[in-house]
Amino acid sequence: MIDRIASLGRTGLDVIASLGRSGRFLVGTLAGVPQPRVGLPLLIRQLYSVGVLSLAIIIVSGLFIGMVLGLQGFTILSDYGSEAAIGQMIALTLLRELGPVVTALLFAGRAGSALTAEIGLMKATEQLSSMEMMGVDPLRRVIAPRLWAGFIAMPILALIFSVVGIWGGMLVSVEWLGVFEGSFWANMQSSVEFVDDVINGVIKSIVFGFVCSWIAVYQGYDCIPTSAGISSATTKTVVYSSLAVLGLDFVLTAVMFGNF
Amino acid sequence: MAQRTTEIIVGLFIIAGCAALLVLALQVSGLTPKSPGETYTVYARFNDAGGLTPRGKVSMAGVTVGSIREIVLDKDTFQAVVAMEINATVDTIPTDSSAIIRTSGLLGEQYIDISVGADEASMKQGDAFYSTQSAMNLERMISNFASGR
């Protein structure tokens, strides 16, 4: 009985210690003078694998989500005779909520899990410790480019998602369901504010990118260096990133759109 | 993959992101790179300003001619004083025109509509509308109707 309570306490302390390690890890990765000649090629290679290779899933998901929004929205709005407001509905939904959040979830699933597995495998095959032996800081050489690539790629992916989604929604509403194109764009332009909606969406995607990349690289760096450990770390990345994104989304929405 | 090809593709990716931001700014949110232009301020006093907000629309014959700058309460007469910025090109508003608060659509936002009068003199900077009509109050209308007018 006492053992169970003790193990509960130990688990709690383990979680807190893990949070502390992740904080020190972040500071160790981001601190220090950047060296453009060595760092920039690494960053570009990571941007390619994290950002460009995620484009396929982002564009296809954006297109289908935009099309579904157009279809469902039209069905609901036609009950009130306000089909012309479909553009406004699609744009605001995508820019404020779905764009940043769905992109972050897809990013965590595709790029986050790939980052965790790669770093975890490097740790399991002792590559990180042999780098330290040679005097190369693995945080600066391996982790930092991946972290920065995640920070930079997420907002770009979220913007592309929103644009493709709006285009997909336009395709369904204007071309297939017959909404008048002029009022589609006019209603959208009059109700979407650049600073309040577009920029707030970009801020959200920057925060989500920070959180997803940090969780992904930390889980890889901190995993148990066995194959079971790597698989458990990859799962934890996706689960924790998704929960963090959804929780932060509520907080950010309350702050930005809550009118308090 | 060669380093040069990777760099080019990543550059295109970043350009695509910036292009997406530009599309969202210009096409979706209707941000126009026009300068605000010259305006002059006129005032209107209402008994009930209703749901008017700063930056609301001021229109005449359905055409937007300006925007609301601010709404303050006059502590002596307990009326709402609305300051409006009208485009300098619209400088022939007769001095006996009236400012009416209307609602755009059934659930839409409220805006100020200027109904032209017949005077020859025009409103200038700092003038006030002497004839105004307050926002339509749904509860008052319903209670008038229910109590048999």
Task: State the end-to-end distance of chain B.
Answer: 82 Å
The percentage helix of chain B is: 10-25%
> Helix- and strand-based class of chain A?
mainly alpha
Number of helices, where a helix is a run of at least 4 consecutive DSSP H or I residues of chain B: 2
Defining key terms:
heterodimer, A: 260 residues, mainly alpha, 9 helices, elongated, B: 149 residues, alpha/beta, 2 domains, eight-stranded mixed β-sheet, 2 helices, 32% strand
Describe the structure.
Chain A: Keywords: Cell inner membrane, Cell membrane, Membrane, Transmembrane, Transmembrane helix, Transport. The complex is a heterodimer of chains A (260) and B (149). With 260 residues, chain A is mainly alpha-helical. Chain A has one domain (36-257). Helix content of chain A is 85%, strand content 0%. Chain A contains 9 helices and no strands. Chain A has helices spanning 2-30, 36-50, 55-77, 86-124, 127-133, 138-176, 181-191, 194-221, 227-257. In chain A, helix 2 (36-50) packs parallel to helix 6. In chain B, strand 5 (98-103) and strand 6 (110-115) form a beta hairpin. Chain B has 2 domains: 1-34; 39-136. By secondary structure, chain B is of the alpha/beta class. An 8-stranded mixed sheet of chain B has the order 7-1-4-3-2-6-5-8, with no helix packed on it. Chain B has helices spanning 3-28, 138-146; strands spanning 39-46, 57-60, 63-73, 80-87, 98-103, 110-115, 128-129, 131-133. In chain B, 23% of the residues lie in helices and 32% in strands. Classes of the chains: A mainly alpha (260), B alpha/beta (149). At the A-B interface, helix 2, helix 6, helix 7 and helix 8 of A face helix 1 of B.
Write the layout of secondary structure elements.
The complex is a heterodimer of chains A (260) and B (149).
Chain A: H1 2-30, H2 36-50, H3 55-77, H4 86-124, H5 127-133, H6 138-176, H7 181-191, H8 194-221, H9 227-257
Helix pairs in contact in A: 1-6, 2-6, 3-4, 3-6, 4-6, 4-7, 4-8, 4-9, 6-8, 8-9
Chain B: H1 3-28, E1 39-46, E2 57-60, E3 63-73, E4 80-87, E5 98-103, E6 110-115, E7 128-129, E8 131-133, H2 138-146
Parallel strand pairs in B: 1-7, 2-6, 5-8
Antiparallel strand pairs in B: 1-4, 2-3, 3-4, 5-6
Main location (chain A): membrane
Subcellular location (chain A): Cell inner membrane
Family (chain A): Belongs to the MlaE permease family.
